[in-house]
Amino acid sequence: MNRTNRRRAVLSVCAVLGAGGVGTAFGQGAADAYPSKTVTVVIPFAPGSTTESDARPVLQHLTETFGKPFVIDFRPGAGGTVGNGYVARATPDAHTLLVITTSFATGIAVREKPPYTARDFAPVSMLSRRKVILVVTPTLPVNTFPEYLAYAKANPQKLNWGTSGVGSIFHMAGAYLAGATGTQVTFVHYKGNSQGFIDLVAGRTHVSPMTTFAAQPYLKSGKVRPIAHLSAGRSRMLPDLPSVDELGVKGYDYSGWGAIVSTGNSPAAAVNKLAAAVVAYTRSPEAVARAIKDGYELEGSAPQALGKFIDSEVARWTKVVVDNGIKLND
Fold first, then answer.
1. 70-74 and 39-43: which strand pairing?
2. Helix axis angle, 102-110 relative to 81-88, nearest 10°?
3. Which H helix or E strand runs over 269?
4. Which of 136, 255, 285, 309 counts the highest number of beta carbons within 10 A?
5. Residue 128 in contact with residue 54, Cβ under 8 Å?
6. Residues 224, 230, 236, 238: what is their CA dihedral angle, to the nearest 10 degrees?
7. Where are the beta strands (DSSP E) in 26-181?
8. Residues contacting residue 151 through CB under 8 Å, at least 6 positions apart
9. How many CB atoms lie within 10 A of CB 299?
């Protein structure tokens, strides 16, 4: 798609979003002039993350659409709070963006006094979702999720559940599942996922979430065994594997997601124009095919819809924190 056609696609999506009551200021000068300079896109993790790999294609699309560079700025640290805080304090002109994930919501939920709230950001658009499965070490004598529940209930606290740190999404997802099923597991906290997966394969831990894409080499080699989707619905990669929701844990849904936000109070006209360009990208057949190949699904949204989703995620994970007494100094 050439630049002219990309701009037409954006204008078409703008009209759709405007018809839905999301954007009514596209005729303003702020929208016409945006972006007026290089746009900095903060990724609050180190280079090489799936957040980066999912974001790069859409940033290339935005660069080509608007004729201004959308440049990644890596600001890792403190579970994403370093980069998130930087964007929360940036000039509110929509020229500083942030790629957020599920950990954005859990990070706010788990802190008694978070350094920012969702209100410090301007939602732009949802971007992607990744299906997550629950896997066990092959030495564990369970082959299905019902067998896992029976084993966990018969052996409280004896199952070691690997996480990427206290308050991390793998910890929160495990606490969420344990609370919903009346089971008790022992959480083993690592500084990242890599060592946790090594110990899972070796049998030192017994169970852990994994994205369907990241799990593929482990599944093919038989180093881990899948027992259920933690995400609601099934994935293209493992269509025969049921979800825990299907298997009786109604309403349970942990999916990895990615979205784009800007600094709070950024001009609505500029934010809506940017959202329209992201949505146009997520509807591109080429982009959809690329995402499926890389193990995720594209999902664009209007800013208001993303804002409501973030609020619901913060509320959901806050309940998990309160119900399970999770504290960062555990």
1. parallel
2. 90
3. helix 268-282
4. 136
5. yes
6. 30
7. 39-43, 70-74, 96-101, 121-130, 132-136, 160-163
8. 140, 141, 142, 159
9. 16
pLDDT at 43: 98
Residue segments in the chain with a per-residue pLDDT below the cut of 50: 8-9, 11-12, 15-27, 330
Distance CA 126, CA 251 (A): 21
CA–CA separation, 161 vs 169, rounded Å?
12
Asked whether 118 and 311 are in contact (CB, 8 A), the reply is: yes
The structure's pTM equals: 0.88
Q: What is the pLDDT of residues 46-93, one digit of tens each?
A: 999 999 999 999 999 999 999 999 999 999 998 899 999 999 999 999
Please state, as a whole number, how many other Cβ atoms lie within 10 Å of the Cβ of residue 271.
28
Q: How many residues does the chain have?
A: 330
What torsion do the CA atoms of 58, 103, 230, 165 make, to the nearest 10 degrees?
A: 130
Instruction: Classify burial at 272, counting beta carbons within 10 Å of its beta carbon; exposed 0-12, middle 13-18, buried 19 or more.
Output: buried
Structure confidence at residue 20 (pLDDT) = 39
Sign of CA dihedral 187, 190, 196, 199: negative
- HSE (side-chain half, CA atoms, 13 Å) at 294: 18
In 3D space, the residue among 62, 87, 91, 61 whose CA is nearest the CA of residue 74 turns out to be 87
Q: Which residues pair with 135 in a beta bridge?
A: 208, 226
Q: What secondary structure does DSSP assign to 154-168, as a single string? A: HSTTTSEEEESSTTS
Residues 106-140 have pLDDT tens digits of 999 999 889 999 999 999 999 999 999 999 999 99
DSSP letter at 243 equals B
Which residues lie across from 226 on neighbouring strands? 135
Provide the strand spans (E) within 22-95: 39-43, 70-74
The residues with which 136 forms a beta bridge, in sequence order, are 207, 225
Distance in angstroms (rounded) separating the CA atoms of residues 45 and 53: 12
Let me know: does 322 contact 172? Beta carbons within 8 Å.
no
Q: Which two tokens stand for residue 67?
A: 């004729």
DSSP 322: H
Residue type, 103: S
The structure tokens 């109070």 sit at 265
Q: What is the pLDDT at residue 23?
A: 38
